[in-house]
Amino acid sequence: MDRDPTPLALALAAAAHGYAVFPLGRTKRPALPSPHRSAVPPVTGALPLAPGALSPASGAVPPTPGPLPAPAAPCRGACGLPGHGVYDASIEPAVIRALFARAPRSSGYGIACGLAPYHLIGLDLDTKHGADPLRALALLGARHGFVLPATVRVATPSGGAHLWLSAPAGLTVRNSASRLAPGIDVRGTGGYLVGPGSRTTRGVYRFLPGAPPGPLRPAPAPAALLRLLAPPRRPVPYAIHGHPADPDRTAEALLRFVRASLPGERDSRLYWAACRAGEHGLASGVLAARLVAAAHATGLPPHEAARTVASAFTRTAPRLAPGGTRPPTPERGP
Q: Rounded to the nearest 10 degrees, how much is the dihedral formed by the CA atoms of 130, 134, 136, 138?
């Protein structure tokens, strides 16, 4: 009986196609703990090369003697130790093998977005909260004049899909949650996608048919779509006509957006509005109650509306780092 490929084998295969990879656990989070937060147990056995910086040049992942002091600024691998999530990603087989040797319980692998040669962009089509991302994507295309090309697609265990696209070198695409449209998350620079074949608590990620024949390459993203994705932030179909400096106007615009919901889109519009409130620092009990009331007026049961708002606030509200400072935007995974 054929056995399923190991996470390491899958990661090495992806790296052979030019994708930088790193180990993931069943929760889709990086499998290696940060050296700045917790002790890392020593690894038995020799590493591929002598200890040195984590880089393609050295090909080695140095052993970690124990927890390091928290850096003054967020460390993205400059300390030379593994445990920095997407910033550990590599296409070098020696580095990849060493990373997976330190993560024996990994069940999958992440693919870093935004790196050469493809400068990968991932469109995460999520059907939670009643969203219809395929319809939203079609409406975006019709409004802005683009058609998505045939490209690599991956089915997610939740019933959604990841679409892989490439961007031009030098273009930074930010990570976002339902900003483009309800149900469409974007994975760009500093983010990652769960690699096909990975096993999670929800199931297995699998390739979908329909990719162009030949090498595993993402199709170029249409220019009109790139204009929506690239900074500075540009208006999108669901733009809110408020002003960041005027929270009252922004809140009222979000409430109007929810009140305008039609059957079949109530929950997804409420989730989108609550996400924007969280991103603007407006998440509060008062606004939550007003959003729930606005959604209830359109026919959404209050308990469902409250659950949706709480989920959006939890996902997007800023968190305080130790010492009371706000951390940078975290890396986003699917």
A: -160
Sequence-distant (6+) residues with CB within 8 A of 228 are: 140, 144, 180, 234, 236
Q: What is the DSSP code string of 184-248?
A: EEEE-TT-EEEPTT-B-SS-B-EEPS-PPSSS--PEEPPHHHHHHHSSSP---TT----BTTBHH
Q: How far apart, in whole angstroms, are the C-alpha atoms of residue 193 and residue 187? A: 7
Q: Can you tell me the distance from the alpha carbon of 303 to that of 321, in angstroms, rounded to the nearest whole number?
A: 31
Q: Which residue is it, tokens 């699917």?
A: 334
- Tokens matching residue 107: 């069940």
> What is the full per-residue pLDDT of the chain (334 aa) written as tens digits?
457 899 999 999 999 999 999 999 999 999 999 988 744 444 433 333 333 334 444 444 555 455 555 555 678 888 888 999 999 999 999 999 999 999 999 999 999 999 999 999 999 998 877 778 888 898 889 888 899 999 999 999 999 999 999 999 888 999 988 888 888 999 999 999 999 999 999 999 999 998 777 779 999 999 889 988 875 443 344 445 555 557 888 889 899 988 988 766 777 788 888 888 888 888 888 999 999 999 999 988 998 889 889 888 887 755 433 333 333 333 446 6
Q: What angle do CA 36, 173, 27 make, to 5 degrees?
A: 45
pTM confidence score: 0.65
- Phi then psi for residue 43, to 5 deg, are -100, 130
Q: Which amino acid is at 221?
A: A
- For the record, the structure tokens of 57 come out as 């040049």
